[in-house]
């Protein structure tokens, strides 16, 4: 099954029998059987007829809505099973500070481990020895994770580790663009554009997997509760940022799969143009479905689904959740060579 990305401004999605038709100005752009569609990403000025929406809901096909620049707006999804017992168990863990902290510690530890593995497995130039100092400092922070007494302390450790990680990460790019660290809302350079868009897409992948298991999406173990924010997907996204998005972004820039002419540069921001967005979607979909990208027996989309199932089991059985970690066999340099 495929994920359908629609960014053609002014396009209309219509139902035609048991198929979905994408058209513009009366001209057919794409026609696809409903059973072949897993979900749809609608970006910008794209319309769906009421008949199409009903057909998508009846077939269990989620629709994610985003602005033209890639900001997430919302989603429509078919009614999923309401596992009240899972949610009660989730509430119980959240209200027990010791149990909630145990889940949060695993999330932070695994994220830092993935950062450490990505740095360690990079093919560094002989003259660059800074990464060794940075990785030692990251390891020292990682040792403090399981002694943290509150989630605020954990978030502080995660923040310091991420700052060190991005010092190494920025030196991995061998392309025409500079990366001086994370910036967003809006991102102000091409690399940050790609990272932010990748994290947004990843969050939707995780959200779909968790909603399929009937979790309470607004209650996270690390990110807690904030009005209007789905915190649980943010928890699980942490374990997949480096394996999925960061590795993919390095590959796209260093292999010159994405270049300057794929972006539109404005006064205060940078956005992907139509060609650049198509390239991003094509590579993201390959990254999610190709086992060679994960270096595992399953694709990342399958691994995310598997982790959602593991989280469900851990919550129901009151066990500590084990997040996904990059294994030492995954070669970072094998997918990120200089031009």
List the helices and strands and how they pair.
Layout: E1 2-6, E2 12-16, E3 19-24, E4 27-33, E5 37-43, E6 47-48, H1 50-58, E7 62-66, E8 72-76, H2 84-95, H3 97-120, H4 130-143, H5 151-170, H6 190-212, H7 231-237, H8 241-254, E9 263-265, E10 270-272, H9 274-289, H10 291-294, H11 300-316
Parallel strand pairs: 1-5, 2-6, 5-7
Antiparallel strand pairs: 2-3, 3-4, 7-8, 9-10
What would you note in describing this structure?
Helices cover 47% and strands 14% of the residues. The model is unreliable at 329-339 (pLDDT under 50). The chain is an alpha/beta fold. Helix 3 (97-120) runs parallel beside helix 5, helix 4 runs antiparallel to helix 5 and helix 6 (190-212) runs antiparallel to helix 8. A hairpin with a 4-residue loop joins strand 9 and strand 10 (270-272). It has a 4-stranded mixed sheet, covered by helices on one side. The chain has a 4-stranded mixed sheet with strand order 4-3-2-6.
Low-confidence stretches: 329-339
Annotation, overall tally of beta strands: 10
Nearest-angstrom radius of gyration?
21 Å
Number of helices: 11
The structural class is: alpha/beta
Shape: globular
Q: Main β-sheet: number of strands, strand sense, barrel status?
A: 4 strands, mixed
Range of helix content = 40-55%
Proportion of strand residues: 5-15%
Mean pLDDT: 89
Instruction: Tell me the strand order in the biggest sheet.
Output: 1-5-7-8
